[in-house]
Amino acid sequence: MFLCSAAAAQKSKSQLQKEKEKNLNKIKETERILAETTRQKTNTLGELQALNRRIEVQQQLINSTKEEISILDSAIYENNEIVSSLENDLQKLKEEYAKMLYAAQKTIGKGDRLALLFSSRTFDQLAMRIKYMQQYSQARKAQERVIERVQQKLRRQVASSREKKRAKSLLLAENVEEQEKMSALQ
Questions:
Q1: Which domain holds residue 147?
Q2: DSSP single-letter state for residue 111
Q3: What is the maximal distance between C-alpha atoms in the chain?
Q4: d(CA 58, CA 181)
Q5: What is the tally of structural domains in the chain?
Q6: pLDDT value at position 1?
Q7: Quick one: pLDDT at residue 11?
Q8: DSSP 119
Q9: CATH of the domain at 135
């Protein structure tokens, strides 16, 4: 009987050994799964933190572009005011120029300039008329230069305004794109 019980004990001992090994393997597998789950959890938390950071940075980018758009709106408004002022100045200069031409034409009359010069009674009168014509010519050329400068400045302001509007459009498109990216992340 003792032999039987020893054999049964042996059998159960070998079974116990197998069960022990089996259980140890199960424990190792469970530990491996737990370690992998912990890594995945850490990775998932890291991904979540990275995603939250990306959303935060994109929101900052959107806010930055909104500020740029606001600045551009102000600059465009100022440019439009300058353009309007320059257009008014140009109109006034042209009116003054037209009055100057009319007055000169009226003074000289419809006759020839040479006739005006040769009709002078004295040499002093001739010299004064020549001087008057030179001054008139210089004033007319100066007025033409002023008008041309104002027109050039006006063209530059209009071009600047167009460029700022184009930049604003690009920023708005960028802002919309970032909003869409952010919406896709959430």
A1: 16-185
A2: S
A3: 167
A4: 8
A5: 1
A6: 47
A7: 58
A8: T
A9: 1.10.287
How many Cβ atoms are within 10 Å of 157's Cβ, its own excluded? 20
65, with CB counted inside 10 A (0-12, 13-18, 19+), is buried
Question: What residues of the chain score a pLDDT lower than 70?
Answer: 1-13, 104, 107-114, 116, 185-186
**Which of 88, 87, 133, 127 is CA-nearest to residue 108?**
133
- The token pair at 161 is 């305004």
Q: Token pair for residue 113? A: 């300039």
Contact (CB, 8 A) for 138 and 104: no
Give the CB-side neighbour count of residue 32, counting CA atoms within 13 A: 6
- What CA–CA distance (Å, rounded) separates 112 from 76? 51
Residue 109 included in any domain? yes
* Domain membership flag for residue 10: no
Is the residue at 152 inside a domain? yes
State residue 2's pLDDT score. 45
Residue 33 φ/ψ region, left for φ over 0, alpha for ψ in the -120 to 50 degree band, beta for the rest = alpha
For the stretch 113-121, contacts whose Cβ atoms lie closer than 8 Å and that sit 24 or more positions apart, written own/partner, are: none
Residue 2 lies in a domain: no
Distance CA 13, CA 184 (A): 61
- Give the up-direction half-sphere exposure of residue 28: CA atoms within 13 A in the CB hemisphere: 6
Q: Which two tokens stand for residue 81?
A: 């005011």
